[in-house]
Recover the amino acids of this structure.
């Protein structure tokens, strides 16, 4: 069950400090343990390209690298391969550079053959024994491989049999395939009798769907299928006691061998007994445990300036001169990374007048290096340390670094400091995982991908920020090892979603801060100057009365007067105070709003936010308490994922809509690609098409999750104009500025290049909203603008009609069929923005307003412009 009321807030007041702690603190997580990935894949034999190619088929050498990428992203360590001909096998082994090995079968002549093979990762599994099972493959009798592997990570041993039952193309018949299934089942049953405690698996291209499953399960009592339906001929089966979860049928690989092959890649997670103590992949105690019993009291408003230096000093020999260089501008705080071998006494000696802190070395010697790597220094004549500590944010990162297998943890050092005037500031120094997007390779069989681990680390950092915020503004700095454009789990987008802005150097050193704090100046110190392989970052900030409890000045709400030259700013809906209540009638719009609010808070954005809400309708009918015993909540999160996001300590926890959404976002973030590919944990398994719920999902997003961008991002007062939906802050500011001027389109500096006349005025709305003279008018009359954008290749999405509604920001052109055409912008909340709407009389030059989205009639075409479509500048000095 879920609590009757869940209050989701973007910022938290000091009165909520105990609630914050309760929400953010977690117990030590035992980790997933006892699981590994297994798959089956038919490669489409290389010889088909010359003998009988599919239309558009490409040679194997062009396809193998693509498939290697898919395999690398699958988290599998054992895969059954079919139609894996020798040149493909060699190309695969070359491309994976020792990460994979192959167990061969035998051909009709009794010679070793890769055509049916078992691929495995030798760093994860030791090959103990190979046997063979004979089946007829059309004409010849072949021997398929049956291999015994023992885990190097303490999971014990498993047997795997891989097969390719004969297709009609090679003379296979139902009787021949049935005989093969019987031979396979008999061999596995004999093995099961000999080793009843050893898990057994069958993988392969069975060339039968339901027929295979029905026959095999009638022969192999107690076995189960990983496949969730009978729509494939590629199967994974497991013996009694084996549990499958998260099965993926990746149909993107079934592309007629154009980029991949002509079969889906099927892979799944197997749950076995937990790892032995001390084995890689377990979760050390302490990961994500938040501080409690903090010996500090909240401070008052912080005014004046604070200067922070952030640096990674890799070598002890460079520490003293590097710290001297950092201290030269007299920063208030210095955060240091990779200083595990630099004593605090050396730091203090290098910068007289500064003190230094990090928690003492942990008892666990495996954690000693990384745990001691981050430290905080501060001006002791201005600041005093009230309390401090360390939080583990990553446990057992199985990374491959410069060709070497590494097992690294990551930590954040935190401190709460009081200034001589009583102001309190918290500082966090952290050194995150090496770039998980650019270096995803792992060794062993960890339960999470590196991207998932990085994202989980960001969850813990954001939790820590939330614990410290009730005492005063929080400044987080360090080597984040990610770039803003890397992906949704990278540091910059995750912190932005939590309401934090940043400065950064030319590399990966960041300083994060929240409004009302503003940057007065930021600059770099060169690598040479700080004796490091990273430049250092310095950021001088105007604190502007920042106080405890969130992103606003102490005791105030966002507001105030507009800075000189700043256009009026839009408001952004009400997600900051969305009340999530029990849903009495799952499936309705109110239930959808709960899902929309939770999904936005978790990190979903844009059209993917709408998709996520629609998928929740299919998964749970928007019932937060839905379960089938193994999957839970709005997005039906599998029990196997427990631990990927902090907070799931009891079964009841996952019914919390926000926590459920965070798990959904973690799964989404770990998937490569874009669009539907990001939702591969749901869409392939859904019998109901989620698209039929997009309309109501979009309405729910517009109504509850509407663009909850931090108003303080522009530093301006909020205007009374409500612009709902996901319209960006920049576009919203333009719309708002037009609404605040008496002649809308005519008085704005960034649209003066276009004539202000009544005739053909509507395309100028596109000019004004999307950035400059002629952008809209360049595509003809109003009814032609959307199609013109499409024809120019500048649409990231397009369509016709208004059912379902277009995405927010879409340019909507229509022709009523009576010679009257028009163009407007869909701004969310069921509203379009354009000229003539809400005007007192036609003929008022530049008159703009809002109308119901269904005002257009006749022929409707819409286009959502790409980001690059914005050819103009921000309206920095709007009237």
């Amino acid at each position: 069950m879920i609590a009757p009321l869940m209050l989701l807030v973007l910022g938290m007041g000091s009165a909520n400090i105990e609630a914050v702690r309760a929400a953010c603190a977690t117990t030590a997580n035992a980790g997933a343990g006892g699981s590994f990935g297994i798959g089956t894949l038919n490669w489409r034999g290389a010889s088909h390209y010359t003998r009988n190619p599919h239309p558009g088929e490409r040679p194997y050498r062009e396809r193998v690298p693509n498939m290697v990428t898919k395999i690398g992203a699958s988290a599998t360590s054992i895969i059954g391969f079919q139609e894996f001909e020798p040149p493909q096998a060699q190309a695969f082994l070359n491309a994976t550079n020792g990460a994979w090995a192959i167990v061969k079968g035998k051909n009709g002549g009794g010679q070793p053959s890769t055509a049916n093979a078992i691929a495995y990762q030798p760093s994860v599994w030791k090959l103990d024994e190979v046997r063979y099972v004979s089946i007829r493959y059309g004409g010849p009798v072949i021997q398929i491989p049956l291999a015994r592997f023992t885990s190097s990570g303490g999971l014990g041993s498993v047997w795997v049999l891989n097969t390719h039952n004969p297709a009609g193309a090679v003379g296979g018949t139902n009787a021949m395939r049935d005989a093969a299934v019987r031979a396979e089942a008999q061999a596995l049953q004999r093995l099961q009798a000999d080793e009843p405690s050893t898990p057994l698996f069958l993988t392969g291209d069975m060339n039968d769907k339901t027929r295979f499953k029905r026959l095999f399960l009638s022969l192999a009592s107690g076995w189960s299928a990983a496949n969730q339906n009978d729509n494939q001929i590629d199967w994974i089966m497991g013996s009694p006691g084996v549990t499958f979860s998260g099965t993926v049928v990746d149909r993107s690989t079934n592309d007629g061998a154009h980029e991949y092959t002509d079969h889906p890649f099927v892979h799944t997670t197997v749950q076995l007994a937990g790892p032995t103590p001390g084995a890689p992949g377990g979760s050390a105690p302490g990961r994500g445990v938040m501080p409690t019993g903090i010996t500090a009291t909240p401070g008052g408003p912080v005014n004046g300036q604070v200067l922070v230096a952030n640096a990674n000093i890799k070598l002890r020999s460079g520490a003293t001169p590097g710290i001297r260089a950092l201290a030269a501008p007299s920063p208030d705080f210095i955060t240091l990374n990779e200083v595990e071998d630099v004593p605090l006494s050396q730091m203090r000696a290098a910068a007289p007048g500064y003190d230094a802190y990090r928690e003492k070395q942990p008892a666990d010697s495996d954690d000693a290096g990384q745990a001691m790597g981050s430290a905080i220094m501060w001006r002791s004549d201005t600041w005093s340390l009230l309390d401090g500590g360390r939080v583990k944010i990553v446990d057992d990162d199985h990374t491959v670094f410069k060709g070497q297998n590494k097992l690294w943890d990551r930590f954040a050092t935190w401190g709460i400091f009081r200034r001589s005037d009583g102001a309190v500031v918290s500082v966090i120094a952290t050194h995150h995982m090496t770039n998980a997007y650019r270096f995803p390779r792992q060794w062993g069989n960890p339960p999470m991908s590196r991207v998932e681990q990085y994202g989980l680390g960001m969850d813990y950092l954001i939790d820590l920020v939330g614990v410290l915020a009730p005492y005063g503004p929080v400044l987080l700095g360090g080597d984040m090892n990610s770039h803003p454009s890397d992906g949704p789990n990278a540091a910059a987008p995750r912190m932005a979603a939590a309401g934090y802005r940043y400065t950064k150097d030319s590399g990966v050193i960041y300083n994060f801060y929240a409004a009302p704090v503003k940057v007065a100046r930021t600059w770099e110190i060169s690598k040479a100057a700080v004796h490091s392989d990273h430049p250092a970052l310095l950021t001088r900030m105007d604190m502007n009365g920042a106080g405890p409890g969130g992103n606003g000045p102490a005791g105030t709400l966002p507001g105030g007067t507009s800075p000189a030259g700043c256009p009026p700013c839009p408001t952004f809906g009400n997600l900051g105070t969305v009340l999530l209540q029990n849903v009495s009638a799952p499936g309705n719009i109110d239930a959808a709003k709960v899902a929309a609010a939770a999904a936005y808070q978790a990190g979903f954005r844009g059209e993917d936010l709408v998709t996520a809400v629609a998928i929740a309708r299919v998964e749970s009918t928007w019932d937060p308490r839905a379960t089938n015993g193994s999957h839970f909540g709005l997005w039906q999160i599998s029990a196997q994922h427990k631990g990927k996001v902090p907070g799931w300590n009891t079964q009841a926890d996952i019914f919390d809509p926000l926590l459920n959404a965070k798990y959904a976002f973690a799964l989404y973030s770990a998937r490569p690609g874009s669009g539907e590919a990001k939702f591969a944990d749901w869409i392939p398994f859904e019998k109901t098409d989620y698209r039929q719920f997009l309309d109501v999902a979009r309405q729910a997003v517009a109504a509850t999750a509407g663009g909850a961008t931090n108003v303080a991002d522009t530093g301006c007062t909020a205007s009374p104009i409500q612009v709902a939906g996901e319209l960006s802050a920049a576009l919203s500011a333009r719309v708002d500025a037009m609404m605040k001027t008496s002649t809308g389109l005519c008085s704005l500096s960034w649209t003066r290049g276009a004539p202000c006349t009544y005739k053909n005025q509507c395309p100028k709305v596109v000019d004004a909203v999307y950035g400059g003279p002629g952008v809209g008018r360049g595509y003809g009359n109003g009814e032609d603008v959307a199609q013109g954008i499409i024809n120019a290749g500048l649409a990231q999405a397009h369509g016709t009609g208004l059912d379902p509604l277009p995405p927010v920001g879409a340019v909507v052109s229509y022709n009523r069929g009576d010679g009257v055409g028009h163009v407007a912008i869909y701004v969310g909340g069921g509203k379009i923005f354009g000229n003539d709407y809400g005007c007192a009389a036609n003929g008022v030059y530049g008159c703009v307003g809002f109308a119901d989205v269904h005002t257009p009639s006749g022929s409707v075409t819409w286009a959502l412009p790409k980001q690059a479509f914005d050819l103009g500048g921000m309206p920095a000095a709007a009237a």
